[in-house]
Design goal:
By secondary structure, this protein is mainly alpha-helical. The protein is built from 11 helices and 2 strands, in the order ααααββααααααα. The chain has a two-stranded antiparallel sheet with strand order 1-2. The protein binds retinal. It is a multi-pass membrane protein.
């Protein structure tokens, strides 16, 4: 069984799709590498190491899928086991990092992460079983998903400790990406051969690959765009002081 899971079998159009997915994730790796190497930024405060997990782990998992590693054959369907492992590792980081941006209370972040992991694990059960168990697991997964969205949209803003306008802006962009894009996953699942079979296996592979890249790479890019939030404390102070000094030398600015 383990031998079967690990035996590479390159070939087929889906390998091409997953190859494109691997390249897509590499773009995210480059973006986070820029953040890590930017000397003006405090990588510790920005927790960029954690951010790197998102595209790096997914890139490895897509490389595995390109080689046909981790495919499990269940009830006549080919299930990408590696994909669920990828989701189990990376989606909690996406959810947790958004909380980090506005310093949400740890217990609340852990609640969201726990619901997220429950959603993925029960989603895996739904994908790999049949009959009542499948639909029961699908229902539990969907409920965990909705509760997680509640925590993100209601609890996170209430329990945020860092609420500067810049941090709020970044938080809202990341949170809304999660809220909008992720809704499509259960829809794709229902349309796929494991659900009602409205979309072929290849079509599902293409849709999910597109979604995975869209959910991860722009996320890292948005953090890059807002990287000023994580500028070193000393630089921020120096910038403030410069602004004060220049204010003293120049005439008072007016609204017009
Ligand atoms: C499943 C099927 C069962 C019901 C639900 C699902 C939701 C999955 C989600 C996955 C998100 C994945 C992401 C990956 C990023 O690369 C498991 C499809 C609710 C929301 C964001």
């Amino acid at each position: 069984m383990i031998g079967d899971l690990l035996s590479p079998s390159l070939g087929g159009v889906d390998s091409v799709v997953y190859g494109v997915g691997t390249l897509g994730m590499l773009v995210g790796v480059v973006v986070v590498t820029w953040l890590l190497r930017d000397g003006d930024l405090d990588a510790e405060a920005g927790k960029f190491r954690y951010l790197m997990i998102i595209p790096a782990f997914a890139g490895l998992s897509y490389a595995g899928m390109t080689l046909g590693i981790g495919v499990i054959s269940i009830n006549g369907y080919e299930v990408e086991g590696v994909r669920y492992l990828d989701w189990l590792v990376t989606t909690p980081v996406l959810v947790g990092y958004a909380g980090h941006v506005v310093d949400v209370d740890r217990s609340v972040v852990l609640g969201a992460v726990g619901l997220d992991a429950t959603m993925i694990l029960t989603g895996f059960v739904a994908t790999t079983t049949a009959g009542t168990l499948r639909w029961g697991a699908f229902t539990v997964s969907t409920l965990a998903f909705l509760l997680m969205l509640y925590v993100l949209f209601v609890q996170y803003p209430r329990r945020a400790r860092a609420t500067s306008p810049e941090r709020k802006r970044l938080f809202l962009r990341l949170r809304n990406q999660v809220g909008v894009l992720w809704l499509l996953y259960p829809v794709i699942w229902l349309a796929s051969p494991v659900g009602f079979g409205l979309v072929s296996t290849l079509g599902t592979a293409m849709l999910v690959t597109f979604m995975d890249v869209a959910a991860k790479v722009p996320y890292t890019w948005v953090v890059h765009e807002h990287r000023g939030i994580f500028r070193h404390e000393r630089d921020a102070v120096a910038v403030d002081r410069d602004a004060d000094d220049s204010g003293r030398d120049s005439p008072v600015a007016t609204a017009d």
